[in-house]
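cron nightly-structures :: item 1 of 1
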Amino acid sequence: MRPVASTFWCGLAGTVFCLGLTATPPAQAADASPAPGQTLKDCEDCPTLVALPSSSFTMGSPAGEQGRRRNEGPQRRVSIAYRLAVGQYEVTKAEFARFVSASGHQPEQQPGEGCHVFDGKTWGTSRQHGWRNPGYATTDAHPVSCVSWHDAQAYLAWLNRLVPGKGYRLLSEAEWEYAARAGHGGRYAWGDDDALTEACAHANGMDQTGKAQISGVTWAANACSDGAAFPVAGPVYRPNAFGLYNMAGNVWEWVQDVDHTDYTDAPTDGSAWTAGGDPAFRVTRGGAWFSYPAGLRSAYRSKSEPDFRGGGVGFRIARPL
């Protein structure tokens, strides 16, 4: 496991404040008002959340950004004028298993369907794989994958019944990018990294470790080695400046928004964009263990059908403060 280096972040939320993080701050009581950077856990079975500040940021990528795609613009200023708590990690296999056991929800593939997995050579849908066995070795602490957008919604409905009044939900796409950037406006949350050598300290994407261990990898990879060919569990890489782990890479994360071709007329208040667009697709963000470098950028956007289950697709939760 990589040691977590000290992180120092200053932000603006009405007044200027600075927060030094050398480790995870102590969890805050559920009924208190946590300061930015503090963690909170509302119940034994609830994911640990990190309190974020309220601020604004520029969403999307500039025209000259390396790897940019057309759907990442036009850039716009988005205001997160409210307090938000976001999952410190993606929802884990153990957390999802408790939901399945308690609720009776059956996320397993339906007849003729399955989980889209990579067998080391090609991608394909396999009825032998699902959230319990996503095509690579996992522990309870690994992020759950092979779960659909609908599965994530069912988990959130259960969590809201378990702890009423908290308003657990998926992040909006704007909230996700705000949380991922953590005050950084470059290509990645850790810098522009043109040489692709710094990513391995911060993100689990495709790199030299993956290329060495997975024979079928033919696409571009980071020029460094992070020691993991598949998703990791826990704080293996450095958190971003908000104290969130694996916002880039590991597994794609479902967000609430319907897919739109670009940001024309998109909300600027942080809310999910569910009007218009193509309701046949929901947005995923963050990249995954197999992502090429450009796919780990903070502005990168992807999409999937809401009933899609993939061996590199999971989710992260949020709630208002």
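cron nightly-structures :: done
The chain has one domain: 7-320.
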